[in-house]
Amino acid sequence: MADEIGVTRHLDDGVLWLTIAKPEASNALSADMREQLVEWLRDASDDLSVRCVVLTGAGDRAFCTGADLRNQRPPRPRPEGAPDRAQGEAARLIQRGWQELVCAVLDCEKPVVGAINGTAAGGGMHLALACDLVVAADTARFIEVFIRRGIAPDAGGAWLLTRLVGIQKAKELFFLGDEVSAAEAERIGLVNRTVPADQLMTEVAALAGRLATSPTRAIAITKAITNRALDADRSAALLDEAWGQELVTTTEDMREGVSAFIERRDPEFRGW
After folding, report:
1. 231 plus 203 within the same structural domain
2. Based on the domain organization, do 165 and 42 belong to the same domain?
3. Does any domain span residue 271?
4. Of 8, 45, 78, 162, whose Cβ has the fewest other Cβ atoms within 10 Å?
5. Rounded CA separation 224/134 (Å)
6. Per the domain annotation, does 268 fall within a domain?
């Protein structure tokens, strides 16, 4: 399904393909595009027909290059004498914009695969890093552009990047703003694998297809406790694990998995 605002949605055999489809603007996101992606990601958690989500960009130049600064919403009317920007407005813009989108990826109960087809810069880089598994074309680039604009990272960048590469490497990428190649991104742990550009969608489709036939609720619980693991002390992490296992044992897929093991056959998971 195409959307006029620049993002598309297509469901195929349990895989929901979400595409940022504004290549003429290097797939930069407007507020409307962000909000539509958030809505679709949240809906994916509720939709039993969705077993996996793929997030990618149209074209071969860019995955997403951050905010579309040339396509911004007009400001709200202001009372006479009000400043052009009141205290708190910028923070709310970040919280209700890019942070909300990144959290929608992190909180989606279905596995989200990032198919990074080109440049991922600024908020677009953090959107890629929020995905559960990241496959990059060998022509992709990752750029923390914030320092080049004289601003600090947003879109959850400090939280995401530090957990992936460690505090010292994260500071290097943030402070210098240098371009990171796909090969280097794989070496330092930003992406799971790098593939030739002309094989990207084939590889991602195969990976997504595998996830779409896996026990969906078990993946949801695994995603939740893994995302919390670095923020929890041992007691909290073990409690999450115990209750997560409790929840999983109530699913039909768990019963199918056990039956398949006893009967020495491949399981057929249904997603609930």
Report:
1. no
2. yes
3. no
4. 78
5. 17
6. no
Residue 201 lies in a domain: yes
Whether residues 168 and 242 share a domain: the answer is no
> Letter for the amino acid at 69?
L
Which ranges of the chain does DSSP label H, i.e. alpha helix? Answer: 31-46, 89-96, 98-107, 123-130, 157-165, 167-176, 182-188, 200-212, 216-229, 234-248, 252-262
Residues 106 and 221 reside in one and the same domain: no
Q: What angle do CA 167, 54, 196 make, to 5 degrees?
A: 75
For the whole model, what pTM was predicted? 0.91
Query: pLDDT tens, position by position, for the chain (272 residues)?
Result: 545 689 999 999 999 999 999 999 999 999 999 999 999 999 999 999 999 999 999 999 999 999 887 777 777 777 887 787 777 778 788 878 899 999 999 999 999 999 999 999 999 999 999 999 999 999 999 999 999 999 999 999 999 999 999 999 999 999 999 999 999 999 999 999 999 999 999 999 999 999 999 999 999 999 999 999 999 999 999 999 999 999 999 999 999 999 999 999 999 999 99
Q: What is the DSSP string of 50-102?
A: --EEEEEESSSSEEE-SB-TTS-PPPPP--TT--SS-TTHHHHHHHHTHHHHH
